[in-house]
Amino acid sequence: MNVIPAAVITPAVMIDVDILDRNIERMASSMRGRGLGLRPHVKTHKTLEIARRQLAAGAVGITVATIGEAEVFAADGVKDIFIAYPLWVEAPHAERLRALAAQCRLAVGVDSAESATAMGRQLGADAGSIEVLIEVDSGHHRSGVLPDEVGDVARAASSAGLKVGGVFTFPGHSYKPGMPTGAASNENESLGLAAATLTSAGFDVKTISGGSTPTALISGESTATELRPGVYVFGDAQQLELERCGWEDVALTVAATVVSRHEARGGNVRRVVLDAGSKVLGSDRPEWATGYGRLPEYPEAKLTALSEHHATVVWPESSELPPLGTRLRVIPNHVCLTMNLVDEVTVVRSGKLWSSGPWRRGDGTTRQDCLLRSPADPKAPDRCTAWRGIATLTRPNWRTTGCSRVIEGILRTRPEEVPVPDGPILLGYHVIAGYMSRVNGRFFESWGRSPISLHDQILHNGC
Ligand SMILES: Cc1ncc(COP(=O)(O)O)c(C=O)c1O
After folding, report:
1. What is the b/e burial string over 418-430, where b = at least 16 CB atoms within 10 angstroms of the residue's CB?
2. pLDDT at residue 343, as a whole number
3. Fewest CB atoms less than 10 Å from the CB: which of 77, 93, 232, 448?
4. Which residue from 298, 282, 185 is spatially nearest to 238, judged by alpha carbons?
5. Sign of CA dihedral 288, 292, 294, 300
């Protein structure tokens, strides 16, 4: 069934809430049945409504990739967060980690003695409020130490004042046809070895964390205490082609329109062009994938090329070329990238817009706008360190520069100190002119859900 409601303007990301709920429940019940904790990676969806559904279905907490994501979900009341990433902690990160640890149980990844030492130094007396899990390389060969090397990292972390909670791994080498089962057993073995190494080094190993979507439903004896799949909530073309989900399990599709069509002529292939390119689908294409995504209604069609706003689809001989204006759904290759590219998603149920949608992506790294006002408080800050749209405030002195300079500073993607202007400041990774005039016009109003809660003078809508 082609289920693009008439009100949807293409290209648009659509989530089918019934399929989403089914996927959430399937993973939750598999974990329950195997006595494993489920700690879904929310970088896949970055959406508060979806995390709430995962937690209601029994997730023990969530996994995130960045401090910004942790802030968004902690502000929504999530009480147990693991930043599964080997953070390098500087002073601004330490300040944010401290604030997070005051709101939730916080664990972070670490994979070297140096980064553990730096983290402990930056956190100072607060180091003990944060737990670290040592990352193990189980075959993906990205970050992580070998299982027999975890002792050194754990000792450095402990000497730096951090709590050592256990070990984790991401078996990312499961992302290849024929690999999931082998990767799951590599994961199991590496985690078992690492946990034993840590125990014999005298540490109390409470958490043994693994998981990817391709491996999570492979049952069998597991040395893990919890798993962290993310993509399973939606499914995508990679999971389809790895045979980790069926067509009927794909909850997220991109609605697109045929804007150009060409019968095979002059040696050119028979094709249509859709109005959904890499700016909405994402451009991931592993070498083993059949294309840049799949069309659920036309499984034989091949997405052979993407430009920013175009998808070229080589059309199968077996069916008629669709007329211009035909609306088609596309399953993206890697759904985490698709969600990262949009601010809002259309929610559908049985082919109709669902009344509880649209859902707004709740990530702190794009279009998360907040308004700061000049405090009369003498302890108020005069510097603002902008980090992907998150502000950290330091000392007082409000007589410096105007909004536009600050915004320029904040628009850079790297953290940097910028002076706080006299009057309100708009922080945001993407700032548009309309927002500025509202800032100037209405000082104390704000909009957009903001993860910021570092200073009581910061106002943000909905929080
Ligand atoms: C550290 C970590 N944990 C868990 C996941 C989630 O796995 P998947 O994307 O296969 O659902 C990822 C994905 O990149 C990851 O990097």
Report:
1. bbbbeebbbbbbe
2. 83
3. 77
4. 282
5. negative
At 461, list the tokens: 């809508």
Contact 258, 326 (CB under 8 A): yes
Query: Is 359 contained in some domain?
Result: no
Output Rg (C-alpha) for the chain, integer angstroms: 24
Residue in 66, 141, 170 to alter for ligand 1 test, most ligand atoms within 8 A of Cβ: 170
The span from the CA of 70 to the CA of 100, in Å, is 8
Ligand 1 near 285 CB (within 6 A): no
Residue 206 belongs to some domain of the structure: yes
- DSSP secondary structure letter of residue 382: E
> Is residue 150 classed as helix, strand or coil in its secondary structure?
helix
Nearest Cα residue to 6 out of 327, 342, 343, 273: 327
Q: 84 CA to middle of ligand 1, Å?
A: 9
**215 CB near ligand 1 (under 6 Å):** no
CA distances from 450 to 14, 57, 69, 428, 434 (A): 24, 26, 11, 9, 18
For residue 316, report the distance from its CA to the centre of ligand 1, in Å: 34
Query: What is the domain range of residue 214?
Result: 34-235
Cα distance between residue 43 and residue 414, in whole Å? 20
Q: What is the reported pLDDT for 169?
A: 98
Assessment of whether the complete model's pTM goes beyond 0.70:
yes
For residue 117, name the pLDDT band (cuts at 50, 70, 90): very high
The answer to whether the CB of 410 falls within 8 A of the CB of 416 is no
Please state which of the ranges 31-40, 73-82, 388-397 shows the lowest mean pLDDT: 388-397
How many domains in the chain? 3
Report the separation in Å between the CA atom of 227 and the middle of ligand 1, taken as the mean of its atom positions.
Answer: 10
Is any atom of ligand 1 closer than 6 Å to the C-beta of 140? no
- If one compares 374 and 244, the residue with the highest pLDDT of the two is 244
Q: Within this chain, do residues 222 and 166 fall inside the same structural domain, yes or no? A: yes
- Distances, alpha carbon 258 to alpha carbons 52, 117, 267, in Å: 36, 55, 22
CATH code of residue 252:
2.40.37.20
14 and 345 Cβ atoms separated by less than 8 Å: yes
State whether residue 350 is helix, strand or coil: coil
